[in-house]
Amino acid sequence: MSQFDVAIIGSGPGGYVAAIRCAQLGFKTAIIEKYSVLGGTCLNVGCIPSKALLASSHHYHDAVAHFEEHGIEVGKVKLNLEKMIGRKQAVVDQTTGGIKFLMDKNKITVFEGIGSFEDATHVKVTKNDGSSETIEAKYSIIATGSKPSNLPFITLDKERVITSTEALKLKEVPKHLVIIGGGVIGIELGQVYLRLGAQVSVVEFMDRIIPGMDASLSKELTKVLKKQGMKFYTSHKVKSVNRKGKAVTVEAETPKGEILSLEGDYCLVSVGRRPYTDGLNADKAGVKVTDRGQIEVNDHLQTSASNIYAIGDVVRGAMLAHKAEEEGVMVAEILAGQKPHIDYNLIPGVVYTWPEVAAVGKTEEQLKEEGVAFKSGSFPFKALGRARAGGDTDGFVKILADAKTDEVLGVHMIGPRCADLIAEAVTAMEFRASAEDISRMSHAHPTFAEAVKEAALAATDNRALHV
Hints:
By secondary structure, the protein is of the alpha/beta class. The chain has 13 helices and 22 strands.
């Protein structure tokens, strides 16, 4: 029987990063993955392929809608969806191959098969051919991730009524894509197919899209996407989804209690994700699982079995790849006797539409609910030279700061390159910067980052210079 210091079940961003950090710290490490490729949801059917399609569809849309205004005449633009999907897969293959290289480089043993506990120190690996082997590990880290959720009355046929996984490999552009759920995944994939020529309708139970983010971001993104042609039905409760041939009918109850009927040729069900623990046999190891399917952990991500930890989507908190990575590093360092810490308030959230949406810290709604006195400063991208030069003038940056101390409490932005700009806000907040601290830092001109400086100036006695 092979023996290891640490066995990790799941090779997504949390699992493979935990494995690398464990190996760096001198642990003999194994990682168990049920699929033939490493990387989990994020690299195979999530973050990476969706960003590849967002990038390709953005290029296509620019060629169709914006090249001419830049003085670029290309004639009739033709879409080759098969080639676009093929490029997406090539990006995925290269990325997952890179993870395999990192496992080899760090001398991490990879087991292909389903990992299940026999007890707290033994993990059985059941391979695709039915054979199995058992390994012994002093510590285990559960990193089994999540799967798309569904509504109980919807039958996912994965042909016309689909999840995000199928939406990443369609063989045709939908004529009318009906999306159930106005969260990050639905909105991102909706914009991909909107750019490629589909009619896109979004049905959302809450009163706004991206409901977990600051309301001002939801409002601005809705305005921009409506301008691009996307249709929204917020505060609508889906009652039924039925397929007949190539047609899918979605019926939803409106805020007035009436029934709205939408007919499309595809329906994307994007109502969140659920923790995935199927086949884990957590109970055999003494690991408690909540009614919601999450694995219970303490502040050190330790489960009810003292030598077993859990990270990422399978535990509480935001289901984000970078959150899982931080947790993977944290557990590895705890096992090595170090004292790592994660400030969950400073895990940024991003929506990779265009304009991009990004945020970190508290929203206005949260600060009001908590009774915290704050001041707000905003700056629109349309007042920025770099944004006008590139033709990307939608959106703004908003900084929320403590009314007394001026400490930055939240940063919310929508606009060009906000997925990257948010890192400045995270850095500032990690060092407990004030709005004035940011406003006195030199920002290169002309850059999109100047909007962050100007928003900080706006939050500091309304001192913005260019608006």
